[in-house]
UniProtKB/TrEMBL annotation:
Residues 148-415 form the GH84 domain. GO terms for biological process: carbohydrate derivative metabolic process; carbohydrate metabolic process. PANTHER family: O-GLCNACASE, PROTEIN O-GLCNACASE. Keywords: Glycosidase, Hydrolase. One of its GO terms (molecular function) is hexosaminidase activity. The active site is at D263 (proton donor). It comes from the Bacteria. InterPro entries: BT_4395-like_hel, GH, Glyco_hydro_b, Glycosyl_Hydrolase_84, Hex-like_dom2, HEX_bac_N, O-GlcNAcase_BT_4395-like, O-GlcNAcase_cat. The keyword Hydrolase applies. Belongs to the glycosyl hydrolase 84 family. This is Beta-N-acetylglucosaminidase domain-containing protein. SUPFAM superfamilies: (Trans)glycosidases (SSF51445), beta-N-acetylhexosaminidase-like domain (SSF55545), Hyaluronidase post-catalytic domain-like (SSF140657).
Amino acid sequence: MKRFILAGAVGLFTLQHISAQNFQIQPTPQQYVTLQDSLEIPLQVSLITDKSYENLPAVSLVENLWKGQIKENGFPIYLGIQGDKLVKKYKKNIPNKSEGYYLSIEKDKIIVAGADEQGLFYGIQTLAQLLTLPKLPLVQVTDYPDLPYRGVVEGFYGTPWSQDARLRQLEFYGKNKLNVYLYGPKDDPYHSTPNWRKPYPPQEAAQLKALVDKAKENEVIFYWAIHPGQDIRWNTEDRDALMKKFESMYELGVRAFAVFFDDISGEGTKAEKQAELLNYLDDNFVKVKGDVAPLVMCPTEYNKSWSDVKGGYLTTLGDKLNKGIQIMWTGDRVIACIDKPSMEFINPLLKRKAYIWWNFPVSDYVRDHLLMGPVYGNGLDIKDDMAAFVSNPMERAEASKIALYSIADYAWNLESYDSDNSWKRAIQDLMPQHAKYLETFAAHNSDLGENGHGFRRDESVALQPALKALQESYTKEGKIDEKAYLEVSDACQQIILSADMLMASKTNRPLIEEIKPWLIQFKLVGEYGQQVLQMIQEQATGKTEDFKETYAHAQALQVQMGEVDATYNQNPYQPGVKSGSKCLMPTFNSLFEASTIRYNQQQGTQLDTRAEYQPYTLNSDVSQLALLPVRRKGRTGAVSSSNEVILWQSNGQLTLAMDYPRTLGNIVLDLGTLDIEGKFVLEVQTADGNWKTLELKPANNKTLLVAQAGSEQVVQFRLKNTSGTLQKVYFKRCSFNEL
């Protein structure tokens, strides 16, 4: 039977102590027994261990905890690994599991005994957390991870993490007992096409070596990944080039390798060729070296919705890949939570446990949003079904830590995982002095908004009942639910306060700098909410002149929010800054419109009732395109791009309708594929109802296509696959301008 400390908040190496009542080991241990007693934290300690362990990360960690205070006659700390005479007495207490440890704090000594070097390190990390308490509790901790590999894959599209951010990440992984970091940023030119065959230049190589060293300090396996599939040739020359690249990385200290074949098309997608190459690497590099971790591969069909079981891709990998090679899997879809049925589908096909690549909190397809809410939705009963669980994070490294903290908690002890509790502890860990304000911000910045994958998250959970009650009572009956009104009003004030306090905070400035545009927007959302609440109050009580001024103020805030959205985070894919987009803004906009309509009816005025305006509507029978959002900036409209290979069926089409006939100039398309213009037809429907075909002309960019609408009044346009066969394309761009 497992016993656990009550849930609470904890931060490693924080400056202030925290109370024992609000404390929990991170990640949640398998067994924690307290003896209901404590001792003063020793000021000096004596480290008793085998001399051969002097250079272990665990020993360095103890030395860092008691800098300059390790003395011969200090409080004794015994460090050992299973099989050592020093901890022979505790042999039965040490878990017989990789990375397990036993920690015992007694009145006269501390014992940390690991099943292996990593277990010893994790035992010291647990001790470090206990040292944040006012007194050191007498405890016995028996602990080990449920999953052998737990960590992060830096595999997102967009701006890769900085060197400093990666170094901070690796320290964070060590503290939270994550043991894998896969380096595979899509925009690293030496990781992917076209430069994967080339060695890293000296400066980049030195940075990678620094990361490898930092990973070793924190008992993290540094995996270097390569992404050669888009232009690989299945010949000896490219095979040798790959071996040569592996050898160059080995010389930098890398002892773990991965090969990614995701998001590609063409020759590189052949399962038999992939298996042949990977087996060669495994046989002639991994096994020959002897000190290299198991090879990991990401397949081309890496989720169920893309897999063609009858086509044999996955079964070919399962049958032909060496059994020691790990195969990654994202679940039923590109973005999906993992459960028992999803594992029961994939494991028999791969003939091994799938290595889970969980695409959360990655936001490279919703770059205008921050995903800072709780981690939930994954099965708590699948620890025996997975070979690993790694998270693909946001390009904002510090903001990703809220999710990564909870992923560490989940992957260590699935059955005891509590998503809400873990989320609150993560926030406390990131900003212990301003956790209250960060929690307010994170609670309203957690959903993804509309997106092509249809993956959504809860947002504004605690405030949802009040928002709903206020909106329904006013929009339907013109009445104000006073209780809900006060709750929403208080929330708006808390939003404004939290934004101000966080922007001025000197704690964790890297995090604040990452999220600053969203903090600016968040404050405006709170101010807008206040004005809207005032509008419904003034309308209901007949304060005509006050309403007009408040209405103008609300409009001014709408303009400011639009300017923030058009100024910050102007990436070419999903530009802008969205905050509170799932519950707060829809409710406030609904109340703005309803109060203005009621005012117009009362006063016979014609104030503009629109809070937001979307002039375009997208429809598509291509499933991967059907949910893509459409955006407008100035006089330019655009459909959000997609990072994945699009399986565009014959006669499948994408249609974009206008709210009224609009004069269009150029329509610009990029399907990421050469000579594709003859396989698709672009048509516009003019104001008279007739359809007209536009010529798609290649532009300077190899795959960019431009069509001139000829200043026609256009009701809608559509792009259709007329090739007669399925086309595998990318959807990099679909934009147009109004004249």
